[in-house]
Amino acid sequence: MNKRYLILALLSVAIGAGMLLMPENSRVKEINPDQLLNAIDDPSRFLSTDLITDRLVKKDPSLLLIDVRPAAQFKTFAIPGAVNIPLDSLLTESSIEMIGKKELDKVFCSNSDLMSDQAWILSKRSGFEPIFVLEGGVNKWFNDIVEAKEPAAFESSEMLALYQFRKAASQHFFGSPEVKSEVAVAPKKTTPVQKKPVEASTGGGC
Amino acid sequence: MKELNKTNRLTIVVVAIVLVFVTGILTLQKPDLKYSFTPAQSLEMLGDSSGYLTSGKALAIIAANDGKTVLIDVRNSIAFDRGHVKDARNIPVRELFSKQSLSFLKEVEKGQQTILLYGETPRQANGPWIMLRQLGFKNVAFINSTFGQISGIENDTIAKKTSLLNEVPLIDTAALKKLSASSSPSEKTVEKPVPVKKTVKPAKVEPASGGGC
Amino acid sequence: MTGPLIPMELIPEAWNNVIALLLGMGFGFALEASGFSSSRKIMGTFFGYDFVVLRVFFTAAITAMSGIIYFDFMGWMDASMLYINPYYVTSAIVGGVIMGFGFALGGFCPGTSFCGVAIGKIDAMFFSAGLFLGIMLFSEMYPLFSTLYNSENLGGIKIYEMLGMKRNLFAFLLIVAAVGMFYGAAFVEKKVTKVEY
Description:
The complex is a heterotrimer.
Chain A: H1 3-21, H2 33-40, E1 46-47, H3 49-57, E2 63-67, H4 71-76, E3 83-84, H5 93-99, E4 105-109, H6 114-125, E5 131-134, H7 137-146, H8 157-174
Chain B: H1 3-26, H2 39-46, E1 52-53, H3 55-64, E2 69-73, H4 77-82, E3 89-90, H5 99-110, E4 114-118, H6 122-134, E5 140-143, H7 147-151, H8 173-182
Parallel strand pairs in B: 1-5, 2-3, 2-4, 4-5
Chain C: H1 16-33, H2 39-47, H3 52-74, H4 89-106, H5 110-118, H6 122-140, H7 142-149, H8 159-163, H9 167-191
Helix pairs in contact in C: 1-5, 3-9, 5-6
């Protein structure tokens, strides 16, 4: 056999052996501190309550609202459609399955946007995308949507339209307050973290 | 055999490929900054309440001025020039990891002083606080109140909405009961989000307008 | 086709066609340089007197594979962003049989037939004409085939995931297998009587 071919064969085997020494990269890549700091400084991750409400009302299937408050608070009140992943169980396997879904827009919310932002930073560091934070959190959502305040007469028509949208959304979630049913106050149903088997991502290249 | 005459070309190609690989491995850049904690450890660290300071405590520390703390203002330089807490040093969020600020922060850490971060809102100081903690700084805390509260500015529009800034549930339960009484239970069940394949719309991003901050 | 650089917006979308053209020229050059414009040389694989097809394609495969793995490691590209064709089991088998039949009959595969056309081979010209005719027929009769065509979609699966192996280990084994195959092919070539062409 020609010497050249022998050398080539040895070389390709050596290259292959080099691969064995490489660390097998995990499913998601952690981003380095510099990138994370730049991401933190970028306010575009904050989505307004109205935007989220609009997507909730339209039942946008690509939206996943993640409530990071403790389970007890989630039970008392939660935005309809939200899923509860308490902050301290953010990195458990079942939560990572949810946060790791590439095709969903994950929006974190907590009472304000402090805890949700912390959840966002840690998820961002672990390389999960696309993730967002609900600006103002559940408190602001409750203020804006459920207790929407009628704008004064002199305010612009845009404000009035916004108010009507909020009012309609509130009625969509909780029904009209005028119609009083005779059903006793039912305890609010809560959804635990839904466990789903890991699906192999079949999405195409993006 | 014909191919043997062509092996010269083959050798050139192979050498070129190997050169590419070697230069790639030689220029492999190790990031300058490394996390000292895994995400799980950082998550645990978030529960450490010594990292959060209420405005009252912060004001006491600022008043005491015993040299044990170094105040860092993470707002941008324009806001800093317009007014800042006495003796505070300005390190905008984006410059936190510049060589200059890192060496300064390391010196502070060496001198057994506590780094105290504050921003326009708690949220602004929160990010830098987590980052510094993750990089291994131990004596870091942030002030969990607005700049207006600690600098004593009157007419502070943000501070009036404190309800929106802290992690305290402020749900009007009376109003809630009224609501839940009128709605049928079926409406409250949370729908499972259906994963959509390939049709993910680009997320609309709204500039932070109005709102709490 | 043009890698993950365009989705990452390192290269504007407009360059897509230019890069594709350059890659196509490179591909054609490599095919012609390996003598693939000769249908006799290609058929050597089936009759055992010339295994150059096997060598070229396996070399290309392991080179590209190690390139992707190394570049991914060095951070020059993101292997997870590569598009993987979904695997349709039935249509892959049926298509493979038809393609192999045409391959053995005509002595060209689609790419090499265009190489043959480029250097003026008449058989290659007929082959390419038949190719376009076949494409047209298939497109016209697509509704007839569509159920077969779209059945048993396994998605973008990877062999090493199906085998439950580590990616790099699989890559290493593939390289070893390829080198072993080259030596085996050379051994067979020696045994079989030489065909002059």
